[in-house]
Amino acid sequence: MQTLRFRSLLMVGLAVLTSCYFCAQTALAHEGWGIVVDRQGQIYFADIPMNTIWRINRQGKLEAFLRDKHSHALVLAEDGSIYGTQEHHAAAVGSVWRVAPDGSFSNVLTPSRDFPLNLHPFTIDRDGNVYSTNSITFPNQSDKATLLKATPGGVVTIIAGGLRGYRDGRGGEAQFSGIDGMAWAPDGSLYVTDGAHVRRVSEDGTVTTFGNGPLTSQSYGEDLMGLAVSQSGSVYVADYSERRLLQMMPDGNTRIILETGLFWSPTGVTSVGEDLYVLEHLRMPLVLLGDVGIGPYARVRRISSAGNVTTIATVWGRNTMTSLIVLLGICALVVFVWRLRRRKNMRRSHS
Predict the structure, then answer these.
(1) What is the mean pLDDT of the chain?
(2) Per-residue pLDDT tens for 74-89?
(3) Do 190 and 210 touch, CB atoms closer than 8 A?
(4) Which residues in 57-93 are b (16+ Cβ under 10 Å) and which e?
(5) How many Å apart are CA 242 and CA 240, to the nearest integer?
(6) Residue 237 β-bridge partners
(7) Which residues lie below 8 Å from residue 104, measured CB to CB, with a gap of 6+?
(8) How far apart are CA 161 and CA 102, in angstroms?
(9) Computed over its alpha carbons, how large is the radius of gyration of the chain?
(10) How does residue 199 score in pLDDT terms, banded at 50, 70 and 90?
């Protein structure tokens, strides 16, 4: 009877783990890349598995800043406001929200259901215009990849792009494969990660590839994610696929400034003065642990101007303690069953 119970528990455990694995494989665990630092030195970053915006306060304490916010990207405005989104697609109406410097929260853009921006990647300029890509869930959009601009009044225009692909050019002549990270440069141009490339979009809609060709290869359905542009013109890129942070100099040359190891990959980066702040998540398939809330699954690290790397905060899944207790219970049950069977075998040998 004890052996039968043990086998049943083992089968249930294997079934749960298998279902979690396939759920993570289906979602491809597309993590957030939003990370910003306010004027007080507080760090904010996006957590997609928990739909939470975290803050590391001035004392270094990690705290939940906003909950129920599915925002892959974050934007820090010149006045100190922080902007984020709820994704907009056919199944749900999204929004662009703002947290003012005084801490007040408001939705600055609540579009209608037929709003063409998906708000998955997004940024916002000093005039309040929102930039994002088209929503592939709308009819006749799956083969397109366009960069769109929406004014505060809701007027939408196409900045660049058309049919999905890869080509430099102006406006509709350009092609994108799939935009994730977006960041403004000091000269007013917009840099985006587009698959394995970094692209520059000028104010007149001219798209050019920055650097010398593709920067990475695709792994687990991911490649480049977040990026940041420094005041000196360097572009810092989170290469999720190859588990590294890249620096692209103004002349287009590239160097590796951080390798995150076997288990972690960078998803987002921001620069503050001479320091860099890097958001990292577990790699596939380990990222499924974050989806089910077990163990450490996200962390923020700082790279000083001298190259020193420091871990500032680590996010642990809320089910970690429960899972540990269950695991210890299973281990205790295994030991109990083993000892019980051993005693029975010994009695049989003596009889």
Answers:
(1) 85
(2) 999 999 999 999 888 7
(3) no
(4) eeeeebeebbeebbbbbbbbbeeebbbbbbbbbeeee
(5) 6
(6) 227, 246
(7) none
(8) 38
(9) 24
(10) very high
At 28 the pLDDT is 46
Contact status, residue 317 vs residue 290, Cβ threshold 8 Å: yes
- Whether the CB-CB separation of 74 and 83 falls below 8 Å is answered with yes
**How far apart are alpha carbons 284 and 288 in whole angstroms?**
7
Structure tokens, 228: 């940041």
Q: Name the nearest CA neighbour of 35 among 257, 252, 275, 280.
A: 280
Please tell me the distance from the alpha carbon of residue 34 to that of residue 256, in angstroms, as a whole number: 21
Q: Which tokens belong to 77? A: 């405005």
Q: Which of 173, 153, 151 is closest to 162 using CA atoms?
A: 173
Q: Omega before 152 cis (within 30°)?
A: no
Q: What is the DSSP string of 170-211?
A: EGGG-B-S-EEEEEE-TTS-EEEEETTEEEEE-TTSEEEEES
Length of the chain: 351
* Six-digit token string for 183: 């960041």
Q: What is the dihedral of CA 204, 205, 210, 213, to 10 degrees?
A: -140
Annotate 125-144 with b (16+ C-beta within 10 A) or e (fewer).
eeebebbbbbbbebeebeeb
> What are 294's two structure tokens?
């077990």
Residue 298's closest CA among 321, 311, 282? 282
The tally of CA atoms less than 13 A away on the side-chain side of residue 109 is 30
